Amino acid sequence: MDPKAVKSDLVLILDYGSQYTHLITRRIRSLSVFSLTISGTSPLKAITDLNPTVVILSGGPHSVHTDDSPSFPPGFTEWAEAHGVFVLGICYGLQLIVQRLGGVVRVGEKQEYGKMEIVVESNSGIFGSNRVGDRQVVWMSHGDEVAKLPQGFRVVAQSQQGVVAAIESPERRFYGLQYHPEVTHSPGGMETLRYFLFDVCGVSAGWKMENVMEEEIKVINSTVAPEDHVICALSGGVDSTVAATLVHKAIGDRLHCIFVDNGLLRYKEQERVMETFEKDLHLPVTCVDASEQFLSKLKGVVDPEVKRKIIGKEFICIFDDFAHELEKKLGRKPSYLVQGTLYPDVIESCPPPGSGRTHSHTIKSHHNVGGLPKDMKLKLIEPLKLLFKDEVRQLGKILNVPQGFLKRHPFPGPGLAVRVLGDVTAGNALEVLRQVDEIFIQSIKDAGLYDEIWQAFAVFLPVRSVGVQGDQRTHSHVVSLRAVTSQDGMTAEWYYFTHEFYDDVSRKICNSVRGVNRVVYDITSKPPSTIEWE
User: Fold this and answer.
1) What angle do CA 60, 63, 67 make, to 5 degrees?
2) Which residue, of 124, 215, 385, 491, has the fewest CB within 10 Å?
3) Active-site residues: which are they?
4) Which one, of 442, 451, 432, lies nearest residue 495 by Cα?
5) pLDDT in tens, 362-408
6) CB within 8 A of 178, min separation 6: which ones?
7) Contacts of 496 (CB under 8 A, 6+ apart)
8) What's the confidence (pLDDT) of residue 284?
């Protein structure tokens, strides 16, 4: 998808490492406005080429006082003013604006973290929908504070402690918030963003999934020549299925889908998924059983990053073999590989579109973006890489993918390899995990809770515990259950089941799965944890 072709004004976010940056993107898109995130240290040309209407400078863990603190490129403020681009700084972004435009930022005498109350001092500009004296609770997270404003700026809100909470220079179109309006802990933050975008900046709301579908089909057709053939790797998940359906709509029978059983699938996954592809989606799918190939390469491997790299490499080897077989059949070798990479995969695995990110860390390699070999022969088509999961589901609905399929919980590309901690081939770990996971998921469905939960699964732990079963001492496996709620997978909260549910599912597992005598439940949110254990 070409950002320049989107029928909406672009709100471009320069990321300086805040854990909330992706939330800004999500909140803006929820207003039907297209938003993208790129590195805050991107060169000026990367910014100007995207032709944004609004640029938002994100928060971050840095201080403008340190020599290596990230900043927007030279010439950015001059370009923004010359082209009438609105600029909003959030937290660290506000401090960047102040310091770079001639103001003063100092180490705060009173640091502000968590919920704080601010008071509106001017109802013009960004607080135009408020009255002077209005108070609102916001989420603060800063140690530095504004001591002196740049020329032409004024304070429009202060915290209870007298710290500058919001500034603006309407004439220069620069604005700043010292708090995070994008988080739910700032109840009025969404209204502030809405007012700023529509009433202050005059942004148009044209970001719609129908437009995304039309534009993506154009991109696919312009990329894939009329004589080219394309392979699509189907995992059985929502992302790859929607990607395949979209590409199939664009190029028809020149798409050739492959479903690989890598020996790391869930209970009866191959049978269930293939039935759905054939009966409901009518996609041309070839099933390849490569269980032995994958598991032999994974034998003895315990490092999760190495597992991901091995799995990514083996997938590509299989896709290349599939391409050779198709070449014999078609007389022409396929040129492209379709994958269902999403925006969160890109954000967590490697730099977002635009440039390298030097001030943030890779959380994990995603097999779609961080685990593929550099010498891969097939060129990638990733039609969903700028979308979040809920947006993919909206797109799938437009493409008539069955609702039941769209509601499936996410399943990691490396499969159960990242849910068996340690060597996946040791003992009967995979078989135990499949049985436990099936009981857990079916119990959730029986309780009518499946659609309330973003993702639920079991994890096989590399420990044993002492138990008593059938009046005998046992020394058996421990499994963990995990269920979370989320909107996009970037943050998540663990799901609260009733005590009765915990009791019931634990009894079912210990009574039904041989070799398990202890069940634990993961009550960690993201952050600090990731959703998957590896």
Assistant:
1) 120
2) 124
3) 91, 180, 182
4) 451
5) 434 444 444 455 666 778 899 998 888 889 999 999 998 888 888 88
6) 91, 94, 140, 142, 145, 146, 159, 163, 164, 165, 166
7) none
8) 82
